[in-house]
Amino acid sequence: MKENNNHSNAKRYGMVIDLDKCTGCGSCMVACYSENNVPFKTDETNKLDSLNWIRVYKISNNKPYPHSEVCYLPMPCMQCDGIGKHGHSPCVSVCPAVATDYDYSTGIVSQIYTRCFGCRYCMAACPYHARKFNWWDPVWPADMEKYLSPNVSARMRGVVEKCSFCFHRYQLARDKAYLEKRQELAEDEYQTACAQGCPTGAITFGDLNNKSHAVYKLKKSPTAFRLLERLETNPKVYYLSSKSWVRRAGDNYLAHEETEKINNKVKEPYEAKEHL
Amino acid sequence: MSSTDKNQTVSSEAAPDSVTPEPEIHDSPPSTTSGWAVFMFFMIGFVGSLLSGWILFPELLYSKKEQPIDFNHAIHLDLVYDGCNSCHYFRDDGTFAGVPGMDSCVDCHMDVMTGAPEEVKFVDEYVTPGIEVPWLIYSEQPDCVFFSHSAHVIGADMSCESCHGDIGTSTHLPVYQENRLTGYSRDIWGHSISRLGKPEPGEPKPMKMNDCADCHLEKMGHKGACFQCHK
User: Fold this and answer.
1) Which helix (H) or strand (E) holds A59?
2) Rounded to a whole number, what is the distance in Å from the CA of A70 to chain B's nearest CA?
3) Nearest chain A Cα distance for residue B91, angstroms
4) What pLDDT does A7 receive?
5) Is the per-residue pLDDT at B6 higher than 90?
6) Average pLDDT of chain B?
7) Which domains are assigned to chain A?
8) What is the DSSP track for B58-114?
């Protein structure tokens, strides 16, 4: 049924984050907060309460000096494709309210706040902690409400929210394309706020199916990996790292197991579609 | 409990002799009239509640508001050169300007041009002090809705009338009916409170989510993903 919703020229928007370039500055988080009206509290020391659509984690190789190394890991929503072509993302398949769905034309997993009733099954299902729950109604400091973006609806208490890959920017880019009677968007017309906010250019965003987009080549890099790949969630966020311990930290391995190479694992959910 | 039990046992014991045959003879003619009375009573209540539901409830549910200025679309449509697009235009980035601001109006209405009472009111109350007119927008959607005019008007080549009706040729603005509970215009729900049947030709189309989904299903073959219309 849902496969019928497929557009013939389906996009598959994704992200490649070069961890060698990431300095952990948090600009992506700030850009995201400001772009997507993400609420914050006066005291953000308790990170379990924090709402953020992209969060920069710090991982370490746990070795003593002088061999200690750290790596910063920005984690937006992975926009999982699920196994094969079904758009069977962990969160989408458990939502009892159809408040989240998989958009076959872009590969982006939506979250509809007015539909969500806050059961948080999706949060339990998401292996990446990409989803956050609004424990309070959002409060912005005086006059800051004037700075809120009208393109993203503010969330209320009791609903789950998550990264949308700045889908409103896609919509606005499409508006312009319609006006200019174009069908396709250029690569730079639709970029997420975090990708544009990154001062070192660590985040690259584009259509993973489009050979002319930078992400298409980057995802095939020998140093590319995805997080928890063996769960077969088929995430659309790829990471690059020259360090093998970082690539190994991307999944749970037993001591005797070797770190898997991504190129053996890449699933193209739309390639099998023609057989339908 | 115990007292009624006793009464019942007493009456049932006494019944076989005299009491039971009598009601069958005397009660049957009055029972038809009382049946009719009950039926009529039910029907009066039923029709009454239907009438209040269909007529009184909408009157109570919707408050009626007048627009600040009774704008005459027909006069303006004759004078402008580019139809609806002259005032309700697309910006260069593809977004739709919607209801025009004062800067569009003052191109012509710096001073009173015709002396029509509504125009005099418009110039005196809004143009001269430089205040934007607080128009009431019939098709205003909730915050969570993304609607792309360019996708529909340019992409799908739909006319303005196909959703907004004949507002462009009207000489008076319709009364704005605001839902007292939700705060949205009645045009969103549609003028038929039962939402049965199709709107009259020239009437604006209802704009609830299901109305969008029905049209998308018909024209596109699917309702589309949530993010197509939500933000």
Assistant:
1) strand A55-60
2) 37
3) 9
4) 45
5) no
6) 85
7) 2-271 (3.30.70.20)
8) HHHHEEEE--SS---HHHHHHH-SSGGGGTS-B-TTS-B--S--HHHHTTTTTS-SS
